[in-house]
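P.,

For your records, the input lines for the assembly:
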Amino acid sequence: AQTVTQSQPEMSVQEAETVTLSCTYDTSESNYYLFWYKQPPSRQMILVIRQEAYKQQNATENRFSVNFQKAAKSFSLKISDSQLGDTAMYFCAFITLNNAGNMLTFGGGTRLMVKP
Amino acid sequence: DAGVTQSPTHLIKTRGQQVTLRCSPKSGHDTVSWYQQALGQGPQFIFQYYEEEERQRGNFPDRFSGHQFPNYSSELNVNALLLGDSALYLCASSLWPFTGELFFGEGSRLTVL
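Structure tokens returned:
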């Protein structure tokens, strides 16, 4: 079975500081993508960052970066210089690549509160 | 360039009724997936459509059915609604085969009374 575990249900950080959200996953597949999505109260799922499993280099998008440890099946998200607008639910997810279809498997989410 | 659009945004039904939710994929995308997100939880995969066929299905009963039209838009139908079907239903579009891009709509919030 494919699973994603986010062990931190809630986290808080002061504005301008750095926070790291944890994610571990389990799959027997070797070819997959990993994602972090942000879901504010407006509810739309917004892509934060994406990592292809075959790439060893960690993905970065402005203030967002990941620490991808393939052997450990770990995919943490680091948010630098946190802003009030980063307050949201964050979901870790992965999608395996096969000819039968591509389903996203999500974790349970981490609620992040950025405090002024 | 329109993104993924879903309708309706909110709806209220009573137990036993039927509901149809609609999704138009991002321009250029040919694959549509549906997810159910219960309050406070991560989304759960319902099914995926490509070339008007259901290609993969999650662990959902037959009360959940879908359709994809030649213009790639899709419908999700839920029959015999239960209280537990109350959730946010998210539609996502992508390409087949998957290229790494996947975009979500804003969702349809279903409340079953």
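Two observations worth noting. Chain A has no helices and twelve strands. The mean pLDDT of chain A is 93.

Regards
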